[in-house]
Automatic annotation (TrEMBL):
This is Anti-anti-sigma factor. Pfam families: STAS. It comes from Streptosporangium sandarakinum. It comes from the Bacteria. Gene3D superfamilies: STAS domain.
């Protein structure tokens, strides 16, 4: 059974590609998540907004590590500790580990 996951690609006025992810990222949908990151990152640097992600397992972390050289992440308080403990914060930029300059932790 695949767990609920939705992804929406958009582009900021400055041209930055953003992939907004909502739901749960686990082994049942990690392949779909990986494919979406690959497509979205083809244009260069990608911000992956995980602010609405409720669950992230090791399969999802593996996908994020695989794409780390080309992505920046926006975390929420629920998954920020997972990103820190896993070491992902050491290989890519993660916003939302604190409140950020405008209070929402977003770049």
């Amino acid at each position: 059974m695949t767990t609920p996951l939705t992804m929406a690609a958009s582009r900021r006025p400055d041209g930055t590609q953003v992939l907004t992810v909502t739901g749960e990222i686990d082994m049942s949908n990690a392949g779909t998540f990986d494919a979406a990151l690959t497509r979205a990152a083809d244009d260069g640097r990608l911000v992956v907004d995980l602010a609405a992600v409720d669950y992230l397992d090791s399969a999802g972390l593996t996908v994020l590590f695989d794409h780390a050289p080309h992505i920046e992440l926006v975390a929420n308080p629920l998954i920020a500790p997972v990103l820190s403990i896993s070491g992902l914060v050491d290989v890519t930029t993660v916003h939302g580990l604190d409140s950020g300059p405008d209070g929402d932790g977003r770049p």
